[in-house]
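Field reference: "sequence" (input) and "structure" (output). Example, Metallophosphoesterase:
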Amino acid sequence: MRVAILSDIHGNFDALQAVAQELSPNDEIVILGDIVGYGAEPERCVEWVREKKARATLGNHEACILGLFPVSWFNPFAASAILWTREHLGPGSLSFLGTLPLSFEDYGCLFVHGSPRSPVDEYITDPWQAREIFEEQDFSVCFFGHTHVAEGYVWDGKRTERIVFLDGGELLLEEGKRYLINCGSVGQPRDGNPKASFGLFFVEERRIVIQRVEYDVRAAARKILLAGLPEVLAYRLEVGG
Ligand SMILES: [Fe+2]
């Protein structure tokens, strides 16, 4: 069985289509939140997720759109995109977003947007923080998103090792070790690599492949500008930052 793990699509349908071309019809699909926000095609992205019957968790952008977080928690560009997105989602998509859980478990793994101890809003960014989470929380493998950086943390019971997937990579899960894995962002990478990022989990082999895919960044950026969204949201796509 192969599970495709997509996170932080952020309304970027061009990036999502490029990733979708890499998937097989038999893949199960998991989305780790932030389907919408920033990009100009939120409705098409939510429709795709629903059409594919993908399982998804709640992201902080969805939480804000649903009124669970105040808009003031976001920087002005993100806040303005959230308000725009709220106006550009149909009632079916809005009620679908309202059904998303904070986390779920399957294939022996935990799936969450932010972190196991604060599912929607904690950013996992360094090995010391990852170690705290390994010590506090009970999970074997956790897939997370939110930071838009493809990387992972491995805990062997004594120390935490950080793995960076700069232009993709592969990881074999070892018995006795625990993992926090971020497969990167489909629609707004922030690790200096503008290619869309996603993961493939080969369940029986316990193997994870992180893949980067080129897509038409210019087209996605143009749509953001034409929609009247903040210009910075278009330009950052070109640098992956
Ligand atoms: Fe995000």
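The first strand starts at residue 2 and ends at 6.
The chain has eight helices and twelve strands.
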